[in-house]
Fold this sequence. Notes:
Number of domains: 1
Strand content: under 5%
Largest sheet: 2 strands, antiparallel
Distance between the termini: 20 Å
Radius of gyration: 19 Å
Structural class: mainly alpha
Order of helices and strands: HHHHHEEHHH
Number of helices: 8
Number of strands: 2
Amino acid sequence: MMQTTHALVGMAIATPIAVRFPELAGIVLIAGLVGGAFPDLDLYKGHRRTLHFPVLYAAAAVVASVIAAAGLGGLSGTVSLPGTVLASTPTVAALAVGFAAAAAHCLMDVLGGGLELRPWEGRDDRAVYDHVRGRWIAPRRWIRYDGSPEDLGIATAAGLPVLVVAEGALFALAAVLLGVSAVYVAVRRRLPDIAAAIAARTPASLRAWVPDRYFD
Length: 216
């Protein structure tokens, strides 16, 4: 799915905490944004493998969520934590949201297409690499490709609650992400030809840095 969709979904994950604990709204919304976007930093090198850890992100999110819930009083009388841990509750809450957003990113990639330049062709069976099992997870293709109309629908559904909760710069950022999403969807199917043409003109000394899919 689109990077903007991942970012907005990450922020949407933070909205329940932002509503319940307004003093944490800023830090958890930023954590959701960063966590949702982070895995795709491997876009040009080992995409969906180098920084995509579907199982590990989910496990880390569960652990951080339990600690954060205890610190926020949600597990009062059930879990006892040292005072130093409780004092760092905002940071732990941000980590919980960030890891949950990163895990959601990986899951969303599984629900989409493969790694090919034109994912609507359905020729590639690699969605996300599972480092725990040591194999690629096959794409489900429920969302046909990044930048599809249904991808925009998810971005919009995720962005609306963020716009309700966010303020100031974060509100403006969420609005910009939605606008960029709409523009990307409008031009998505033209981009592979443009990217392939640019890749074909890339100097030989730089081609090692260009993903193979751009030469398809």
